[in-house]
Amino acid sequence: MTKNKRMVSLVLTLAMILSMGVGALGNALVQFTDIDNHWATSALQNAVANGLLQGDNGKIRPNDNLSRAEMATIVNRAFGATEKASISHYPDVLESAWYHDDMAKAVKMGTFVGDGNKLNPDYSITREEAFVALARAFKLSGANESSLNIFLDKEEVSAWAKDGVASLVSEGYIAGSNDKLNPKQSITRAEFAQVMDNLIKTYINKEGTYDIVNDGNVMVNVANVILKNLTVNGDLIIGDGVGDGDITLENVIVTGRTVIRGGGENSIRIIGNSNIQNIVIARVDGVVRVFAEDGTEVGEVIVDGNDNVIVEGSIGTVTVVAADIVVSANNSTIENINISGPNSEVIVSEGSKVDNITVDANQANVEVLGEVRNINTTTCAEQAVINVSERGRVEQVEVNGQGTKIDGEGKVQRVEAKANDVEINTPDTKVTAGEGITGVIADGKEVEPGTTLDPTPSPGPVYPGPVAVTGISVSPETMILKVGEEGTITATVAPSNATNKNVTWISSDETVATVDGNGVVTGIKGGTATITVTSVANSNIKATIQVIIGDLLVPASGNNIQQVIDKAQDGQVIAVGAGTFNEALTIGKSLTIFGVDGTIVTGGAIATTTEAGKTLTISG
Q1: CA–CA distance from 245 to each of 220, 291, 428, 548 (Å)?
Q2: 393-399/542-550 β-pairing
Q3: What are the b/e assignments for 438-466, b being 16+ CB within 10 Å?
């Protein structure tokens, strides 16, 4: 019986270790005397294993209330936070206090915002305060508050806390007790451990390549991690601890959100056949670049951090909700960009294409260096600035925000002004002012309400397109030269109006004949060579001419080959032009006779004569 109990205990222990997440085994071996047989034993052991709870003197104190400083420390550990904000303006956080740095990290993360000039680190944190801080950390918001209707004490949830609490309830991370949330009660260490266990099922806190995770949300809080060939059945959180380090998702499917709180300017890579439908970028202390390789599917990117963002690749929608940041779309194809963060800017870089941009925030800027099909400013988007660079192109702008300004040297085809005080300075833009709309200025001219200004640009010079080369002919078709003499080949490029009529020349055997850039051929020694002329515009178009070089020459026709043979010295080369020669030749010396088709006769020391009356034909 005792043996069986030990076996069951071993199985339970192994199962618990597997649920603790990757890299947690070392901490799992720590033993605490006050968590056995507790209702939250599993969550407490996972919290210990993953370094969230460390205990004191062998105890975790699960039923003690959690202080605000303790909660800040646990969340910081979960996300791997290292960056600290200046908190000198909070006098209740002494620099000598054990929690000083963790409170500074929590303020930097944005999980704690304080109450006036106090952070109240030693106070017990209420359940609704804890839930709101977690909603901030995990970027959970916007849930329908009707999700609170199942709780009898829903009216006790503070107005400022309803969004955060409802967001955690709607996702199933908190369920209350006995149909109550008890929002004003202090949360215990065990209760908070359970909520954290509901939120995160796998912690990856060591660099490496991983191909298996538990079902549920996954937290990566260290750099240089590759997730490969796996599915995250929940949210993937890239924690603050990644910093400027690299994270690669290769053939990864994320069924929930991908929350990016860490990662640098060249670090978040989505490659292979990955499918990431919802990305929330929420880094607070550095530029983040998200690169989606061709073939990956990225649905929506929500920018909700404190620093600039670079996106690259094919993306469905980019939504900028953060204020005072710059989002650059580099080498991207994006269906929709929505700007709701005041004073934020979107840059559509050269080479990027965007279907629609909606500006829904005051003093937002759009910089276009690439191509945009449509830009729409809403009535909330007052004082917006749209700048189109020289290479930028925008098909249409609909202006509903007062005081919008459209500048630049690029091309904006048409603007429809449905708000007052709109200024358009782009060249040759067709501008329509709506009925009753005033203060519309196009290129320094006022556009009357209900009218259209359609400037006709002055016609510029018409430049014909390039004319291609179709052929090359040469003259003469063959050439016979004496050694040391020169002859010129004329190349004619067709058509006569070809844009580029330049040609190059080359000899097949420069020991026999050379040719210069003007087609001038020089005989070097007896023999034959082929001269090729090639079009510079199209190297596939060329012409050739055969050149025959001799020590002595025979004219193109006439009965005179024998006369030249008689004059020739032993070993010389005779070049014979194309023609018909009715001669009986007697060759009594060693000679080489070339015609236009090559060697005709090679004589020996004593050569026999040809038969009288026979005809020797040398043809070209």
Answers
A1: 12, 14, 47, 72
A2: unpaired
A3: ebbbbeeeebeeeeebeeeeeeeeeeeee
Q: Residue 324 carries which side chain, given as an amino acid letter?
A: D
What span, in angstroms and rounded, lies between the C-alpha atoms of 111 and 135?
8
Return all residues near 304 (Cβ < 8 A) that are at least 6 apart. Answer: 139, 280, 281, 282, 321, 322
In the numeric block, the tokens 């709180």 are attached to 261
* Torsional class of 28: left (φ above 0), alpha (ψ -120 to 50), beta (otherwise): alpha
The separation between the first and the last C-alpha atoms of the chain, rounded to the nearest angstrom, is 112
3-class DSSP state for residue 495? coil
**CA dist., res. 20 & res. 93, Å (int):** 33
Burial 76-101 (b: 16+ CB within 10 A, else e): bbbbbbebbbebeebebbeeeeebbb
Residues 202 and 227 sit within 8 Å (Cβ to Cβ): no
Map tokens 């006769």 to a residue: 601
CA distances in angstroms from 312 to 251, 269, 282, 290, 334, listed in the order given: 18, 10, 17, 6, 9
Residues with Cβ < 8 Å from 306, sequence gap 6 or more? 110, 283, 284, 285, 322, 325
Sorted by sequence, the CB contacts under 8 Å of residue 383 that are 6+ apart come out as: 362, 363, 401, 402, 403, 404, 405
Distance (Å, whole) CA 226 – CA 231: 13
CA distance 401 to 128: 39
Q: Among residues 454, 421, 426, which one has the least CA distance to residue 440?
A: 421
Three-state secondary structure call for residue 240:
helix
Residues counted in the chain? 620
d(CA 467, CA 500): 8
Rounded CA separation 510/28 (Å): 84
Query: What sign for the dihedral angle of Cα 116, 121, 126, 127?
Result: positive
Collapse the DSSP code of 107 into the 3-class scheme (helix H, G, I; strand E, B; otherwise coil) and give the result: helix
- Block means of pLDDT (10 residues each) for the chain, 620 residues, are 37 38 46 88 94 89 96 97 94 96 96 90 97 97 94 96 96 93 96 97 96 97 96 97 94 96 88 94 90 88 92 94 94 95 96 96 96 96 95 96 95 96 95 95 92 76 81 90 91 91 91 91 90 90 90 67 82 77 74 66 41 44
Query: What distance in Å separates the CA atoms of residue 523 and residue 480, rounded to the nearest whole number?
Result: 9
Paired strand residues for 333: 314, 353
Q: At what angle do helices 127-137 and 162-170 cross, to 10 degrees?
A: 70
| Dihedral angle, C-alpha 220, 226, 231, 235, nearest 10 ° | 20
CA geometry: angle at 612 spanning 609 and 616, to 5°? Answer: 75
Short-list 80, 140, 127, 134, CA closest to 112: 134
Query: What gap in Å lies between CA 270 and CA 206, rounded to an integer?
Result: 20
CB 192 within 8 A of CB 77: no
Between CA 614 and CA 119 the distance in angstroms is: 123
* Helix axes of 68-79 and 100-109: crossing angle, nearest 10 degrees: 60
d(CA 601, CA 620): 16
Helix (H), strand (E) at residue 69? helix 68-79
CA-CA distance, 388 to 369, in Å (whole number)? 6
